[in-house]
């Protein structure tokens, strides 16, 4: 059960892959199992920025494209099911939280923020991974691409996550690592913070988020600046 915020501050919503957690190794190793079955060259983990970040279906398509193979819709559907089955058993082998995540969550929680996760990972995997990493109880809502009938970059995925967390969709801040997160927040009319260490084929510096951070120890001050109520409380 997520802890209750001390005050009614803005909800802070996080992407998962490439934002809260460095999931690339486990994602790509799962994809490479499928690629080996299809006699396609594996994708090195160093290419994570080219394939990870828009959900499993997009990752499979991108990975096979790097191997010179296009996929029919039926084949993609089959590989997607196989991917989910394999990944469910291997989602926290090498995955770790990025440095400073726990400390940032501590500060935001102490300041009274609701915390939530809005990801294009499926919900069961998202919850299981965050439980394995020891932080699932920090979030009032963990919403995946299958939680609602729509997913990022549809802004309703973000606003629905905020509502499920008990927050106000008009008073929230998105934290992500990719064009998808930035476009989603923009469409919802919300400020967005982008991290530079995630998975994106376009540098976040070229995507014009409201703020860019290189480390999680910068996040609290950024949220303080973006949330007028918090700024006034700590001034």
From TrEMBL:
Pfam families: HAD_2 (PF13419). One of its GO terms (biological process) is DNA repair. It is an enzyme of class 3 (hydrolase). Pathway: Organic acid metabolism; glycolate biosynthesis; glycolate from 2-phosphoglycolate: step 1/1. This is Phosphoglycolate phosphatase. Specifically catalyzes the dephosphorylation of 2-phosphoglycolate. Is involved in the dissimilation of the intracellular 2-phosphoglycolate formed during the DNA repair of 3'-phosphoglycolate ends, a major class of DNA lesions induced by oxidative stress. GO terms for molecular function: metal ion binding; phosphoglycolate phosphatase activity. Its cofactor is Mg(2+). The active site is at residue 15. Belongs to the HAD-like hydrolase superfamily. CbbY/CbbZ/Gph/YieH family. Mg(2+) binds at residues 15, 17, 177. InterPro entries: HAD-like_hydrolase_sf, HAD-like_sf, HAD-SF_hydro_IA, HAD_2, HAD_sf, PGP-like_dom2, PGPase_prok. One of its GO terms (cellular component) is cytosol. Gene3D superfamilies: HAD superfamily/HAD-like (3.40.50.1000), Putative phosphatase, domain 2 (1.10.150.240). It comes from Alsobacter soli. It catalyses: 2-phosphoglycolate + H2O = glycolate + phosphate. Keywords: Carbohydrate metabolism, Hydrolase, Magnesium, Metal-binding. HAMAP family: GPH_hydrolase_bact. Its EC number is 3.1.3.18.
